[in-house]
Amino acid sequence: MLAHELGKTGARVILVEAGPRLTPRDFHQDIGKTLASYFWEGGTRAARGNVFFPTLQVRALGGGTVFNSAICMRPLASSLQRWQDDHGLTDLTEEALAPHFDAVEELLGIREASDDIMGRRNDLFREACENLGWSWERIRRFEEGCRGSGECITGCRHQAKNSVDRRGIREMVEAGGRVYTSVHVDELIMDQGKVRGILGATVNPATWGRKHPVRITARCTIVAAGAIGTPVILRRSGMTRNAVGDNVVFHPSCFIMGTFDELVQPWNGATQGIHSTEHLERGIKLESLWATTSTFSRGLPRQPKQFKRYLKKWPHMSVFDGWVSGEASRGRVRHIPGTNRPDITFDLGEADLRRLQEANALLCEMFDAVGSKEVVTGIHGLPEVMSPREAADEIRKGRFSAVDLPTASNHVMGGAAMGSDPDRGAVTDSWGKVWDADDLYVCDTGLFPSSPGVNPQLTAMALAHRLGQELPRRY
Ligand SMILES: Cc1cc2nc3c(=O)[nH]c(=O)nc-3n(C[C@H](O)[C@H](O)[C@H](O)COP(=O)(O)OP(=O)(O)OC[C@H]3O[C@@H](n4cnc5c(N)ncnc54)[C@H](O)[C@@H]3O)c2cc1C
Ligand code: SF4
Predict the structure, then answer these.
(1) How many whole angstroms from 67 Cα to the centroid of ligand 1?
(2) Pick from 173, 191, 333, 375: CA 20 to 30 A from residue 137's CA?
(3) Burial class (CB in 10 A: 0-12, 13-18, 19+), 127
């Protein structure tokens, strides 16, 4: 988004990306192959701490937007208020950001999922909300011509998703900007407190093996390697204050699978077409979800006959997911010494554990509200299959520890947090200008000092758009 804005001004823009550029020909519905080819660490990236915590990040031109569900939400007013009050980000008000959200939403064609592509899984989610008297919304996504094929996580073969490689980067290249893919950035070129570009190497897109050294010089350098990648680059370049890579925030998530007498065919319908914001202010978001049978099969009963029985039931099952705000938990990114690989730690805090517990219970209540007979929760200490009502009660009553509730998160934020005071943990100012070096900016979800309260990508894009309008005034 930033490259797009800068490209419009006539600036000479060079975008460097470690992963390859992908086209619909590169997408297939095999999740294992997709993760191995286009995700960091082949899809096995995980944080260590009081819980095993997998986290997926995309390694391709366009980043997460290429494989994500395209959900776009503006941040909660209460979250922005906290950024202002607790972090001195007084210029990041709803009013000041509104034109940037408007511009991004227009460029990416963000709109509500339509009823004709919902499929039964999304409809069941909506009916559950209605039966429980909860609010529900059609999800706003960047798409044009979505067929409801439910395969966003393996890439949109129908060219319907307006990921930023297709909207934004393309126009920047048409305006004369350059893109170098398969170049891994290792560190920044430092010159007496100023940044003068990047050092890295070309990588083989199939094997990830390093080939030729790369050196690119620039008047202004912007690091946008994501909340995991950016702290690694900054720290390897000598910016080793604790704040760099500290305060990493995740949205810990969960999912519940339920069976129905009727045919659901959960793979039909928009990957995530309906969500509920009913519980958002208490830090819980609920969504309909699809992401290949093998992704969810880890939750199925483990005894072989049972496993087979539930695999056969897939056409009659549905999946709903939930995630929590992560306010009580803490993550941290460092790099493994002598390498450019991240070392991620994450401890799930007590209040988030209880929120996660409640999210699981709420999802079970939803299945109960639409006549599901059985749910599979994957929660340690509970029977593998239960009635949804019984499961909701048992989950609420239980005293679970962090390892009992299966969780993961693909929403990573913080690590290069904005703030007015570098002595109080801020890595950048409210524009993303790094306090510790000149001519250096950060532009990704790493900037968030805390959760925006919603799915993160639209907020990052609005901040990028804002910086894209400011930088030409400075250079
Ligand atoms: C499966 C999935 C579904 C999701 N669904 C949603 C959703 O529906 N809505 C939502 O808001 N969020 C969603 N997210 C999260 C969202 O995709 C991310 O929050 C968002 O993409 C983060 O943007 P970013 O620019 O910070 O980082 P990224 O999108 O991760 O971009 C960083 C880029 O930098 C590159 N890079 C990293 N290190 C280096 C290096 N050393 N050298 C060169 N290049 C490097 C990476 O390859 C990547 O392309 C989802 C994520 C996943 C994985
Ligand atoms: S649901 Fe299918 S058609 Fe729609 S954006 Fe996702 S992959 Fe593309």
Answers:
(1) 9
(2) 375
(3) middle
Q: What is the pLDDT of residue 302?
A: 86
Helix (H) or strand (E) holding 424: none
Domain 2-25+57-109+160-244+416-474, what architecture? 3-Layer(bba) Sandwich (3.50)
In angstroms, the CA 372 to CA 386 distance is: 11
Domain boundaries, the chain: 2-25+57-109+160-244+416-474
Residue 350 Cα distances to 329, 380, 473, angstroms: 8, 17, 46
Q: Cα(54)–Cα(43) distance, rounded to whole angstroms?
A: 9
Best residue among 151, 216, 457 to mutate for probing ligand 1's pocket (most ligand atoms within 8 Å of CB) is: 457
CA angle 438, 2, 72 (to 5 degrees): 130
Residue 231: closest CA among 328, 68, 343, 326 = 343
* Ligand 2 proximal residues by C-beta, below 6 Å: 143, 146-152, 156, 158, 160-161, 270-271
